[in-house]
Design brief:
Mean pLDDT of chain B: 86
Membrane topology (chain B): Multi-pass membrane protein
Subcellular location (chain B): Cell membrane
Organism (chain B): Rhodoferax potami
Family (chain B): Belongs to the binding-protein-dependent transport system permease family. FecCD subfamily.
Helix content of chain A: 25-40%
Oligomer: heterodimer
Radius of gyration of chain B: 20 Å
Number of helices of chain A: 13
Largest sheet of chain A: 6 strands, parallel
Low-confidence stretches of chain A: 1-9
Number of helices of chain B: 14
Protein name (chain B): Iron ABC transporter permease
Chain lengths: 323, 343
């Protein structure tokens, strides 16, 4: 399940890369300064950053897919939590990781980056030592992951694929690769438009199970999995939870009887199989349609947080849903 | 404590509390994240009593029978148990602030569970976490006992100091393991450190029940000795009771029981601290009268707290420890204000 889609994906991305490089050659060189929005605040860049620091595996994926390696000074928050795929490792090359989990202000200042890409609860904590405000003092502009803006701005729209597109375009624009980013987004949109939709009058009832025993940890209204489920013609049964990620009650999940599960595969400690086994033993969940029929797809962290891996993950989800 | 005049007729009080407990039990089966009508409760329970086949159950029936009824029973057992632990510890150490927290019993259990979550994973299947919590709780007791072994006399002060230091140590361990763990571990850690009744299942209820049984038998068996302790070590001694031995016995029994409770419900604070005070105010200090009143109030308090924790943020659930800690803190504040008024 893991190797086969990867082969087709890499072939496709190679073709896409060819197309993209032609496109970017044809496009006019982007003019600076550029201004992008970051959680409602304007960030202006007079020139592309030369020593960027990118946090977390999903945001690093965005940077690598835009080919920003030569403009990256470091990454953080990867090895402390996840296994890197060989492709990721290779693309990352010898860019160093300054902290395996959350970077401290000292970690960051020691690197002297000229740009930081992170999110609330994705490397930064509200009131913590590393925030856009604390970094501003050291002339380090911070681009904040849109999905995480809900932690500082309660008036955000519910999740849509814009969470990926907008951030990808912002990152491209900041680094002078706006045309490349636009082309990539157009190609993603094309891939998603070509997906078979789940059949049935009502959208397929889907539930994401991340972790938790007495209460499940799941994705709510503002997290990208809600948009990913919609992209395959489904509906997140927890899309009324006013949070990006949070815990709900088992009985609420069971009462909404999910027909399909998205299991978060952390690739350790039994991974997604263990989650399914847990559900099969749970007094309520074992009777839900999804568990009874073993209808699920296992997706990794970077596939369920905003990043380029979302698109292949949605395709994977669509295949599993229509199987 | 002058919350209410001491009621001498404890049997009347017992009946009132039992009736109240029955009402709140029903309320706790009806309220929660999903809507359940009264008629559906009857339907579900009917199926269950008849031993109906699986296919007859709707999801709401299952919510009632498989989740809410065991959850209600867990709240009653753990609430009553924690109150009893608090009462025993407060009497034997003659300290009004004694509760399972103070002696490191809870923090040891939490550290055991969190260590397993972050370091080894569930090596023994579904029983791993309860077992780890139990082992952690007993480990903290062993450390306290080792600390006390040097001394021939187990004074209350020495016990509390030993317990406190162990409590801090295990809390530090818990935080250290949390720091080491992955992102999702933080969620499970929250459950173990703030408590919750969401893990209640028919097949794990026997763990806290065992704890409650051992506690009840011990306190019933030693009720006269406990009464004698109220007037101090010297008086107890003159009545033929060895206060230090009783303290130690009570401590070991309380530790065992607390580990049983925490193994299923995590660390639920303030019930053990607050309830014995209420019980004494209502039923007087003598244990024959007071202990079962404390158990009833403890059960009521935890049951009500759980109803609140499940209802205010539905479909999300608040850790029940947040509710009990808020109620407990308000209780202490009320008591303080009341005392200064009277002064």
């Amino acid at each position: 399940m893991k190797t086969k889609p990867n082969l087709t994906f890499s072939c496709r991305s190679w073709l896409a890369a060819c197309g993209l490089s032609v496109l970017s050659l044809a496009a006019h060189a982007q003019t600076f300064p550029v201004t992008v929005d970051s959680c409602g605040e304007n960030l202006t860049f007079a020139a592309p950053p030369k020593a960027a620091l990118i946090h977390d595996i999903n945001m690093t994926d965005m940077a690598l897919s835009l080919g920003l390696q030569s403009q990256m000074a470091g990454v953080s928050g990867i090895t402390g939590w996840y296994k890197m795929s060989p492709e990721f490792k290779q693309a990352l090359g010898n860019i160093k990781e300054i902290a395996p989990k959350q970077p401290s202000l000292e970690n960051i200042l020691a690197l002297k980056p000229d740009f930081f890409f992170a999110g609330w609860n994705y490397g930064m904590a509200v009131g913590g030592e590393v925030t856009p405000t604390t970094l501003k003092k050291y002339k380090i502009p911070t681009l904040v992951l849109s999905e995480s803006c809900i932690h500082v701005d309660k008036a955000r729209p519910p999740a849509s694929m814009e969470l990926l597109y907008a951030d990808y375009l912002k990152l491209g624009t900041i680094f002078g690769k706006e045309a490349q980013a636009k082309a990539q987004i157009a190609q993603w949109k094309q891939r998603l438009a070509a997906l078979p939709k789940a059949t049935g009058k009502e959208p397929l009832r889907m539930f994401l199970f991340d972790s938790g025993e007495d209460k499940p940890f799941t994705a709510g209204k503002f997290a990208i999995p809600t948009a990913m489920m919609a992209a395959v013609g489904g509906r997140n049964i927890m899309d009324d939870v006013d949070a990006s990620w949070g815990t709900v009650a088992w009985e609420a999940v069971a009462a909404r009887n999910p027909e399909f599960l998205v299991l978060l595969d952390y690739q350790n400690d039994g991974g997604a199989d263990k989650l399914l086994q847990f559900l099969q033993k749970h007094p309520l969940m074992q009777h839900t349609t999804a568990v009874k029929n073993k209808r699920f797809v296992a997706l990794r962290y970077e596939e369920l947080t905003p990043g380029p891996a979302n698109v292949a993950a949605i395709e994977k989800m669509a295949r599993a849903v229509n199987r | 404590m002058r919350l209410a005049p001491a009621v001498r007729s404890t049997s009347l009080l017992t009946v009132c509390l039992l009736l109240l407990l029955a009402c709140v039990s029903l309320l706790s089966v009806v309220s929660g994240a999903t809507e359940v009508a009264w008629s559906q409760v009857g339907h579900g329970l009917g199926l269950w009593l008849r031993g109906a086949p699986d296919a007859d159950y709707t999801m709401v029936d299952r919510i009632v029978v498989d989740l809410r009824v065991p959850r209600m029973l867990l709240a009653i057992v753990v609430g009553a148990g924690l109150a009893l632990v608090g009462a025993l510890l407060q009497t034997t150490t003659r300290n009004d602030l004694s509760d399972p927290y103070l002696f490191g019993l809870s923090s040891g259990s939490a550290a055991g569970a969190v260590a397993v979550i972050t370091l080894t994973g569930e090596v023994l299947g579904v029983w791993t976490l309860p077992l780890a919590a139990f082992v952690g709780g007993m480990a903290s007791v062993v450390v306290v006992l080792l600390l006390l072994r040097r001394y021939r006399s187990h004074t209350p002060e020495r016990m509390i100091l030993a317990g406190l230091s162990v409590s801090f140590l295990f809390t530090a361990l818990t935080y250290y393991f949390t720091f080491l763990g992955d992102q999702r571990a933080a969620q499970s850690v929250m459950f173990w450190t703030m408590g919750g009744l969401g893990s209640a299942r028919w097949d794990n209820l026997f763990i806290p029940l065992t704890g409650l049984l051992v506690l009840s038998l011990f306190s019933w068996h030693r009720r006269h000795a406990l009464d004698a302790m109220l007037s101090g070590d010297h008086t107890a001694h003159s009545l033929g009771i060895a206060p230090e031995r009783l303290r130690l016995q009570a401590f070991v029994v309380c530790a065992f029981a607390t580990a049983c409770f925490v193994a299923v419900s995590g660390v639920i604070g303030f019930v053990g601290l607050m309830v014995p005070h209420l019980a004494r105010a209502l039923a007087g200090a003598l244990h024959r009268r007071m202990l079962h009143i404390a158990m009833l109030i403890g059960a009521l308090l935890l049951l009500l707290s759980d109803v609140v924790s499940r209802s205010i943020l539905a479909p999300q659930e608040l850790p029940v420890g947040i509710v009990t800690a808020s109620v407990g803190a308000l209780f202490v504040m009320y008591t303080l204000l009341h005392q200064s008024d009277g002064a």
